[in-house]
Amino acid sequence: MKHFLIIGHKAVTSGDYSLNDMPGSAGRMDILCRCVSSAFFLSHDLRRDVQIHLLLLGEPHPGRYVRFEGEHVRYLSPDERSAGALIKKALQKDVSSFESRSTPGVNTRTATLKELLDEFLEKGCELVYLREDGDDLRSTADFAEDTVFILGDHVGVTEEEEKLILDAGARLLSIGPLSLHANHCITIIHNELDRRGGEKQ
User: Which domains can be identified in the chain, with CATH numbers?
Assistant: First the structure.
């Protein structure tokens, strides 16, 4: 299973935003929606062995967590509006620290970054943190069966978040010398793993 954890620092945490203005009214929710699309969609199919984890830290309730499961997700199309609608529906649910389903394959609850990292480690996942000065992805050994690739949004990752990630033992990897959009990073990671002869989708 491949996992992608995206930290959305500005992404709103209420479900009253407009699908017609996700860059503005939703705190750059469009970035997270593009990540969802890049994580799952092939030309004529969907990657089933992928989960994408969205940690939303915007107002009014910072610390909302939305998880998409490729194996079970329904009603998802490649466009940003489709993913935005599913996230919006998830944010309209009253939640606690216990995960609940909003639509098939989309689950939500409250969470902090540390809680998510601890949970991944408890499940035996390998943590990989993408940064320009990390080891070259193309020259690294194979990854664990369950690997979590951690990315920031358009503002990157804060020093405090980076410390949590590195203290959790994340491997530091680079996909190139330049800073890329998070959804482009996901596409490159998929391509590299596909070229290595990854599992059939």
Answer: 2-195 (3.40.1280.10)
